[in-house]
Write a structure and sequence with these properties.
It is a single chain. This protein is an all-alpha fold. It has a domain of about 50 residues. The chain has three helices and no strands. The protein is globular, with a radius of gyration of 15 Å. About 15% of the residues are buried. It comes from Amphilophus citrinellus (Midas cichlid). This is Bromodomain containing 8.
C-alpha cells in the first residue's frame, strides 16, 4: 500500500447529514410512545416524516437508536 489507500477506514453508522428539527421531534415523540427498546416501531412510525430527498435507510433502526443516543447526550437533565 504505497499510496496509503486503505490504511484508514471511516466507520459510518448511518447517513452523515444533520437531522432536521422536525425529524428529531418525530424521533423523540415516537420513542416516548414506543419506548427506547422497540426501534422497529420507532423507525416505522417516523418514516412518513422524512424530509424530501432522504435516502431509504435514513430512519433505519440502527440509525434511529444512534441519533436518539446523541440527542440524550446533548440534552441537559432537568434540575
Amino acid at each position: 500500500m504505497a499510496n496509503g489507500v486503505g490504511k484508514h477506514k471511516l466507520l459510518v453508522i448511518g447517513p452523515t447529514e444533520p437531522w432536521s428539527v422536525r425529524e428529531k421531534l418525530c424521533l423523540a415523540t415516537s420513542v416516548m410512545k414506543s419506548g427506547d427498546q422497540n426501534w422497529v416501531s420507532v423507525s416505522r412510525a417516523i418514516k412518513p416524516f422524512a424530509e424530501p430527498g432522504r435516502p431509504p435507510d435514513w430512519f433505519s433502526q440502527k440509525h434511529c437508536a444512534s441519533k436518539y443516543s446523541e440527542l440524550l447526550e446533548a440534552t441537559e437533565a432537568p434540575k
